[in-house]
């Protein structure tokens, strides 16, 4: 905040160096600290980190709005944008100038005071709802454990996946069992290699229903509120929908372009995709008498079909793609 105040307090006329560059260089310590914190909160969270996240998320949102809705700061940015000789700027500097001005404009700098107040309220509510959504998904992911007593139920799993399941069980005080979780390193190998179809089904349903069970971790209301708040925010900023707001800065530019692109993909790829699914379904029926291919079957039989057709086993290839070897 002091770095921002120093820019707005300048008596010198606004210039690219003292305003745009100054703004770009501000907040480095905060950006670094918050990036590290939220990465930790996503990857290896605990109750203490989540409590901190709930406390600081609204503060960070408010701080961001303090910058983007700062009238004095925006006027300096606007002056540079309208008066700077772009011929004297490098391509990188011109891009930074455009993005800085547009960033203020897209996030409420042109709104009146009443609208700015409303935008602040929406952004705080969005930050809280989004954080709660993520916490609920993570909590449900961490709570679930498929406990396996019979080693025969691990048939088909590569050794690394079995060892991982054993280690997870030991961490949970279940040393004589195996545990499969909904975390990707555990979930994906089981869905790809485990022969036990009933357990694949159980795991797939658990994965697909995370935070969608009507309990204290249910996200249905959070989703509805996030959608409503995003729509309200977009309209307040002059966009028809949240999709229009987001896509304006993306390659697609508009929802219409996205839908057109998806339609084109469908035209060229749907028939091939249906053919691939039909091939896997026929293979599953021939191999194991599966009358109806379910979503918990597809990864398993796709892998088996690939091995039969091309003699390719992803597990045999892994030693050649270790991180240090790929980097080298």
Report on the structure:
The chain is mainly α. 71% of the residues lie in helices and 2% in strands. The protein contains 16 helices and two strands. The chain has a two-stranded antiparallel ribbon with strand order 1-2. Helix 1 (2-8) packs antiparallel against helix 2 (16-25), helix 4 (47-68) runs antiparallel to helix 7 (113-143) and helix 5 packs across helix 6 (91-106). The longest helix is centred in the last third of the chain and has 34 residues, at 255-288. The protein starts with a helix and ends with a helix.
Compute the gyration radius: what is it?
26 Å
What overall geometry do the principal axes of the alpha carbons give? elongated
Q: What is the structural class?
A: mainly alpha
The average pLDDT score comes to: 94
In short:
Helix content is 71%, strand content 2%. The chain has 328 residues and is mainly α.
Write the layout of secondary structure elements.
Blueprint: H1 2-8, H2 16-25, H3 28-43, H4 47-68, H5 71-83, H6 91-106, H7 113-143, E1 146-148, H8 159-171, E2 178-180, H9 184-193, H10 197-208, H11 220-236, H12 242-247, H13 255-288, H14 295-310, H15 314-317, H16 323-327
Antiparallel strand pairs: 1-2
